[in-house]
Structure formats: structure tokens, C-alpha cells
Design a protein that fits this description.
With 187 residues, the protein is of the alpha/beta class. 44% of the residues lie in helices and 19% in strands. The protein has one domain: 3-Layer(aba) Sandwich (Rossmann fold). The strands form two sheets. The chain has a five-stranded parallel beta sheet with strand order 3-4-2-5-6, sandwiched between helices. Strands 1-7 form a two-stranded parallel ribbon. The longest helix has 17 residues. The C terminus is likely disordered.
Amino acid sequence: MPGMDDPPVIRLPDPCLVVLVGPAGSGKSTFAARHFAPHEVLSSDAYRERIGGDAADQRTTRPAFAALHAALRRRLAARRLTVVDATSVTHRARSALLRDANAAGIPAVAIVLDLPADLVRARNAGRPRVVPEDAVRAQLAHLERSQDGAGLRGEGFSAVIRLRVPGAVEAVRVERVASAEPWRADG
């Protein structure tokens, strides 16, 4: 399919940690809902909503992510496939997730929704909860920087799948491959 770096089938080891990477408006939550069961998805917005009553309340970000990481560690310790639905556009955000996966011996896969900036901004503007334009612009810049050099693969992800066009995001299928072996980032 034109514009796709990877085949239209994503094969995930099960269990694994799936980190959805992309700015607000890129379709991470839609992708998660399409391909994963609700109990498999840990959403930063859902944790903000639970803790502060409002998914947009950035003042609850720290406690929301503390709760998300606690749930993530429990799920990974139980060897359950888990999807983190957050922007994860910064190295710092991803490294915390990778530490949790590595500690549990679970591979981490990044699925990057790297759609054109104009499309992301338009989608964000049409959402019920619009993220401020300057925040989206910063997220887009972080995403671009994360793909320089060794990029995400160099951070320790066992696989990085980059989807660059809307058709690729909509056409891709996700399959699970049983994985009984513990995984280590360095081996």
C-alpha cells in the first residue's frame, strides 16, 4: 500500500506492550478501539477522567500517569497484552513505558501514527475536546525529532510500525502471535 512502511498486517507477540505514538488528533484512540478489547487499553485521558472528572484537565496528569503505570505494571506482571493510548511523543514518556516492559520481560512495540500535520490539526479541530493548537504543534515537533537517527527502535522497542497515511491506518489488520518466552531489551 503506498505510504506504508510496513505490511498491512501487524503481527504482535502476545503478550507485549503496545505503545501508540502520535499527536492529539492522529487517531490513536480510534485505532485502539478498532483493534483491541477495552480491557486491554490503558488511556491517559480515561485516567484523567477517573481521577479529576475531566479528561482534558492537565492538572491531573501526574496522578493519572502514576495510576496508568501502576495498572500497566500489574498487567505486564500477569503477562497480558496491554496497549497504552497516550501521545508518547517524547523520549521521556516512552522510556518510562519501556522500563516497565523490560522489568516484566515483555517486548514493547511502538505503533506510530505519523500522519500529515495538516490532517492531524484538522482532525483535532473537529474533535469534541480540542487540544490547543500550540500543544499539537509541540507534539508534532516531538514526533518528528523522535524519528531522527536510530529513532524509536534505538530506544529499545522490539518493533516500530509507522503508519503515514490514513488509508494505511484504516486498512491495517492486527494479529497476535503467542509468545511464551520472556523477552529482554538487551538480548
